[in-house]
Amino acid sequence: YEEKGRYYPGYKEMIEELTTTYPLAQPIVGEEAQKGFIKQFGAILRLKNILTSFDDFEGNEILTNRDFQDYQSIYLDLYQDYRRHKEADRQDVTDDIIFEIELVKEIEVNIDYILMMVEKYRESNCKDKSILVDIDKAISSSMQLRNKKELIEEFIKRINVDTDVEEGWKILVDTQKEAELEKIIKEERLKPEETKTFIDNSFRDGVLKTTGMDIDRILPPMSRFAGGGRRIAKKQNVVQRLIMFFEKYFDLV
């Protein structure tokens, strides 16, 4: 449509441009192509967010749910790549790139949906592999679930027709959470009891505090000759690992 002499493509045209310019079978190579894809898919997310409020849109999405999830997975891959690049360079290299992450979060599935799909897989006597494909695509296209992919895949490997999915999942999460924290404590030589208390408090409060005395108390003692830079680097590494651990398990405990 046109507005004030400017032409705006409709949803169908935007999808056609997406699938023609960025076919799923081909990787998106080069910074300009990646920026073009980010801009195009972001525009589709914004328009789709509006269209979903209309009943007539249901059934007219053009892209299949699987294909849309595949595109969203690529979008999130690029988001994470650009974010890592930004953190590594300590520069805002994404000033001209806008990621519609909040819109992604609005339409992504949660762990309850995944467990429902796992239950369907169990009910098929663990034979319907198309359900596993759906689970994989749902995880890859979700900001919330991506860091839980290995955990979910491990759970699926363990289930059989007699598994109580809800109880089995809880047991696995508790076991893996404890094992992963023990590994971090051992490898980073953290104080065990102080670290466990710190993590328990973080789960309770809903936030992992990366500054203050609480985080400093869990760090291992260091030689007075080690220098301040070494201690800062050690703290940064510990904080990064604990943040990843917290984000992985926070909404599961």
Topology, please?
Blueprint: E1 2-3, E2 6-7, H1 11-21, H2 31-51, H3 65-89, H4 101-107, H5 111-123, H6 129-140, H7 149-158, H8 165-188, H9 192-205, H10 213-217, H11 228-249
Antiparallel strand pairs: 1-2
Helix pairs in contact: 1-2, 2-3, 3-6, 5-6, 8-11
What does this protein look like?
This protein has helices at residues 11-21, 31-51, 65-89, 101-107, 111-123, 129-140, 149-158, 165-188, 192-205, 213-217, 228-249, and strands at 2-3, 6-7. It is mostly helical. It has 3 domains: 1-107, Methane Monooxygenase Hydroxylase, Chain G, domain 1, CATH 1.20.58.2040; 109-163, no CATH class; 165-252, no CATH class. Strands 1-2 form a two-stranded antiparallel ribbon. Helix 1 packs antiparallel against helix 2, helix 2 (31-51) packs across helix 3 (65-89) and helix 3 (65-89) packs parallel to helix 6 (129-140). It is globular and about 65 Å long. Residues 1-5 have low confidence and may be disordered.
Give a quick precis of the structure.
Helix content is 65%, strand content 2%. By secondary structure, it is mostly helical.
CATH class of the largest domain: Mainly Alpha
Taken together, the total number of domains comes to 3
Strand content: under 5%
* Number of beta strands: 2
The overall pLDDT average reads 90
Distance between the termini: 49 Å
- Helix/strand-derived category reads mainly alpha
- Poorly predicted sequence stretches spanning 5 or more consecutive residues: 1-5
**What percentage of residues falls in helices of 4 or more residues?**
55-70%
The fold-level CATH name of the largest domain is Methane Monooxygenase Hydroxylase, Chain G, domain 1
> How does the overall form come out from the CA principal axes?
globular
- Sequence of strands across the biggest β-sheet: 1-2
CATH architecture of the largest domain: Up-down Bundle
Order of helices and strands: EEHHHHHHHHHHH
What is the gyration radius calculated from CA atoms?
22 Å
Number of helical regions: 11
